[in-house]
Amino acid sequence: MEELCEMYARSYMQQQTAIEFFLVDRKSFFLNFEKMDRDRIYSKILSLRPDNLRKYHRGPPSLLIKTTNLTDRWQRGKISNFEYLMKLNSIAGRTYNDLNQYPVFPWVISDYKSTKLDFSRKSTFRNLKKPIGALNKERLQIFLDRYHSWSDPTMVPFLYGSHYSSMHTIGYYLIRMEPFTTISIDLQDKYFDHADRLFHSIERCWENCLNVDVKELIPEFYYQPEFLKNSNKFNFGVKQNGVKIDDVVLPPWAETPEQFIRLNREALESDYVSQNLHHWIDLIFGYKQRGDAATNAKNVFHYLSYEGAVDLEKIEDKTMRESMEATIAYFGQTPSQLFTIPHPSRS
Predict the structure, then answer these.
(1) Could you tell me if 79 and 115 lie in one domain?
(2) pLDDT in tens, 169-213
(3) Is 23 in a helix, a strand, or coil?
(4) What is the pLDDT of residues 76-127, one digit of tens each?
(5) What CATH number is attached to the domain comprising 8?
(6) Inter-CA distances, 99 with 126, 169, 170, 184, Å
(7) CA 184 to CA 172: how far, in whole Å?
(8) Which of 63, 216, 228, 340 is deepest in the core (most CB within 10 A)?
(9) Where is the BEACH-type PH domain (predicted)?
(10) CA pair distance 92, 334, nearest whole angstrom
(11) CA-CA distance, 32 to 338, in Å (whole number)?
(12) DSSP H or E stretch at residue 271
């Protein structure tokens, strides 16, 4: 108990039943309880007044963010874009301890063909005002046509049939590193997925996000080159064109994984991204996450991906409850909403 320095009430499977503990040695633990037990244990720990416990919160993350000067510090350039996004993720309940609520980061580069990146060109960057699913106009129209002609009275309409962050997304990106290799195999019935569907190329992954799925990125794209290397020499198989899957194929402007990470991080901290990042924050953590603003921004996902959409404890039908739990677990979860008004831009 003397090692405990931070404690936060968290959600698990969209239910307020978990606590995340942070220790002074930087270890952390994410534990799920019965709902009444969670609150009782949280209160009991507070009553013991651990010597090193300095930060704790039980309540909406939108209230926690208001107790900090985080946004003001970011606006004034006192913290980097990377640090600000990591802090927002943490406050919104995103954690490395739950693959269903893994931290989410934006794609910021859209040029994966050039031999050299030009940060002075707007076309180098992804449009941060739009969700991934709305970047391709032709594909978006297909989503909109389905949305406006929705005929299932038992289902709340949504635009996208997949989410920008899920346990499958994490396993997809980190398949070359344990324990994610084993996790990926478990998600595919004890086998690797077909080689052509594995994460094998940055450019191909970006093209898929524009045409097939709506994945955003994870923090590792901005600090950890190891996940791009097949250092463990796993046999991922051979694609239909006869090419064996090994290290991730990098864009022409990056000769090594280290260079890719460095340039991706430079792009994240660039003037263009700094001036537009607040738009992406509105979509993921802010006022465009829900309601009419989300509809207008073409940012509507399955209703069970949103916190508070359902109270599983009140569902008596076992089959229905298990179905909802499976949807929450495999579809993906939207972060807790932190802001209900437009996020300010960086000064």
Answers:
(1) yes
(2) 999 999 999 999 999 999 888 889 999 999 999 999 999 999 999
(3) strand
(4) 999 999 999 999 999 999 999 999 999 999 999 999 999 999 999 999 999 9
(5) 2.30.29.30
(6) 26, 9, 7, 11
(7) 7
(8) 228
(9) 1-46
(10) 10
(11) 22
(12) helix 271-284
Mean pLDDT of the 295-313 span: 94
Residues 138 and 269 in one domain: yes
Could you tell me the two tokens for 70? 């985080």
Domain that holds residue 49: 1-59
Comparing CA positions, the residue from 270, 312, 257, 222 lying closest to residue 35 is 312
Same-domain pairing of 71 and 30:
no
- For the chain, percent of residues with pLDDT exceeding 70: 100
> What pTM value is reported for the model?
0.95
Burial class (CB in 10 A: 0-12, 13-18, 19+), 218: buried
Pair (311, 278) in one structural domain: yes
**Element (DSSP H or E) covering residue 48:** helix 35-48
Q: How far apart are CA 66 and CA 76, in angstroms?
A: 17
Instruction: Name the least confident of 99-103, 144-148, 151-155, 234-238.
Output: 151-155
Q: Is the pLDDT of residue 154 over 90?
A: no
Task: Give the full edge-to-edge strand order of the sheet including 55-57.
Answer: 28-32, 15-23, 4-12, 55-57
CA 333 – CA 100 distance, rounded (Å): 6
Q: Are residues 239 and 148 both part of a single domain?
A: yes
Residue 345 lies in a domain: no
Query: The CATH number of the domain where 173 resides is what?
Result: 1.10.1540.10
Tell me how many domains the chain contains: 2
**Continuous H helices in 57-197:** 61-66, 70-75, 81-91, 137-148, 167-173, 180-187
